[in-house]
Every structure is written in structure tokens, then in C-alpha cells.
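Consider the subject:
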Amino acid sequence: MTTLARRLSTIKPSASIDISRRAAEMRREGLDVITLSQGEPDFDTPAHIAQAGKRAIDNGHTRYTDVDGTPELKQAVAAKFERDNNLRYSTDQISVGTGGKQVIFNALFALIDPDDEVIIPAPYWVSYPDMVRLAGGMPVCVECGETQAFKISPEQLEAAITPQTKCLILNSPANPTGAGYHRDELVALGEVLKRHPHVFVISDDIYEYLTYDGWAFTTLAAVVPELYERTLTVNGVSKGYAMTGWRIGFGGGPKDLIRAMATLQGQMTTNPSAISQAAAVEALNGSKDFLDEHLEIFRQRRDMCTAAFNAIDGLSCRAPEGAFYLFISCQGLIGRQTPGGEVLERDVDVARFLLETAHVAVVPGTAFGLAPWFRVSFAAATERLGEACERIAQACQALTSAPATGSA
């Protein structure tokens, strides 16, 4: 039997990928499963961006590039940061990787020594804690419940910082909740961080363009300039541009960190796809007229699903400021009994029940560090979303109160 590295015992497979895999198995068995577990826009990549990728192939741009991005793409990224975020980076402050996940992974491996602590507000994207553990660090997960709109408070941040704290990961708008930090909230967190100069910040802004109801996106290094030199601002083309499969993410930060990240990437994947980089240049520099249409569709889906889930006895959720997720409390279902006699004791049980009974794939909140909740993605066809809501409602209606237990 193969002896695997001990480091693998500290991590687990992504829950969203695991659920999607089981849903795919059920579909192969002939079942009609609606998958709401993956964070992927259902829109095609805009035509002008796809055409840029095709031109790259036709023009023979299919060879190795610079390890961490072509000069053209780095220039486009720098222009995007200045235009959209009022952040000025030179090209040697820019890193391009195979998706935002690799950029964050590289940064953590460049920053973290054994037993360094990384503060992660919970609920969190499922990969953050495991990436920290793989880097040898200790994730310090701070629970941020619905009463505080799923956002870390300055008091919580202050209390979590120790001499061992190396980094804070901040995601806004956030996965899985869609919660976004307002400018004044970032300023307040910045005041705490200014008192602790040993704490670096990774700001994950991947959902920047997906916002609703006039909520204004901003990012930490822009509103607290004193943190510019100790912040890596991460973004990419996957979500806003419907380019998940192209796998291009990028970050802007201090030169020494960017150099270290390039060294790491050179020993792992080397450069991202040359074709994808050419398409990303067009995405960043070209027309964004498609965004208004995408956002309006997402907003309609968000409102439809929010109303539907809040109408189901035992479920509740808030309307998010951004992204394309609903984080749904299933506290009211805990303790109920399925038609098959199983008592739902955890959100994991609820997610399994919805998959096996309603044939709808959702991700339990336990995977995101907060229970009992589950996440659905409304980045799916509107008709299928409506059907999924109806299936979940019917499944929940079939639940009954569990029989009381105790001695006679």
C-alpha cells in the first residue's frame, strides 16, 4: 500500500466538489439532479473574449510565456487595478496564476512558516483553511454569524491577533454568503491592522463585479493606504467574465512577495495557458457591456430564490450584497424526521436528504465553518432554479416532528 505524506491527513476534499461528484454519479444513473453546489456562472464567455483566445491559437501564441504572466497581461492587470480600484502597481508588482486559487496558494506558501496563524472569518470559502494547513500554518477561524451580517468586527479581529498571527484573509463579496464590507467597515478593520504591523492581508476580491442594490465595492488597500505595502489584492476573470474554465487569476502586492510567488510557481505549474492569457487581456481591456445584462439576471434569480426559501417552513436567508450565493439557515429543520425515519441532526444530513430525496445538490454550511446552514448557487438557469426551489419545498413539507424519546 502506498504511504502518503502526513500533510495530507490535515486536509479534506472540497465539499462542493464532493457533492457535485455525487450529483454527477446520480445523473449517470439516470436521475434528474439539479446542481446548485458549484460557483460557476451559467453564461457563455462573451464572444469578443472568446475570439481573442481563438486569435491567439491562429497566430501561434501557444508556447511558454513568462512564468507569472505575459507583459501584455500584467499591463492590463495594472491598468484594471488603477481604473477600477485606484490602486497603482508596476508590472513587477503583478502576479498571474492559474486561477485566483493558485495566486492565494502561492502567497500563503511564500508567507507562512510552521505554526504561523492565519485569521479567517467564518463562514469562509472551503479552501482557505486547508491551504493554510498545507503551508504549515494554523487557521484561526473567527465565527461571524448572521446577526453581524457574516462579517468580522474590529473587536473580533483585535481579539484574534496574537504575536503568531501572520496573515488575515478577507473575502468581499464573500463566498458562501455574498456579504460585502462597506467602506467604513474596511476603514474600521484597517485601524486595527495598523496597530499590528506584523499582520499581512490577502484580500480576495474575485466577486468584485457581481454586486446588487447599489452596494459599492471597494477594497482594503484602496481605502486604507497605510496597508498597501502589506496587502496582496487578488482577483481574476472567472466569475465576473464567465471564464471559470480559462483559469486566470492575478494579484497585486509588494515586489518581494511577487518575486517569491513567481519562484514557487516556476517550480509548480510554470506559466498559465498562453491562450487564456490572451483572452484575459481582452477581458480586462475590452467592452464590459455584457455585465449589466448578467447582473440583472443574477439579481432576478437572487430575489426569486430568496423569496422562495424564506417561504419554506424551517428555512431562512438574507439577500446578499454580491456574488451569486444564498446562505440558508436550516436550523428549523434540525430534529425533524424524514419519511424514511431518519432524524436530521446536522446540516450535512439536510444536504444529503435534499440530494437523495429532492435531487437537488447543495453544500452544507459545516464545510464553510458555520452550521446549521447550507449554500446554494443561483448561477444556474432560471427555470431550473425555480424547479429546485419547488423540489426543496416539497421535500421539507414531507418532514415531520421526530417522536419524543425517554423512559416510560
Observations:
- The first strand starts at residue 34 and ends at 35.
- Residues 6-44+290-399 form a domain with the Aspartate Aminotransferase, domain 1 fold (CATH 3.90.1150.10).
- The chain has two domains: 6-44+290-399, 60-285.
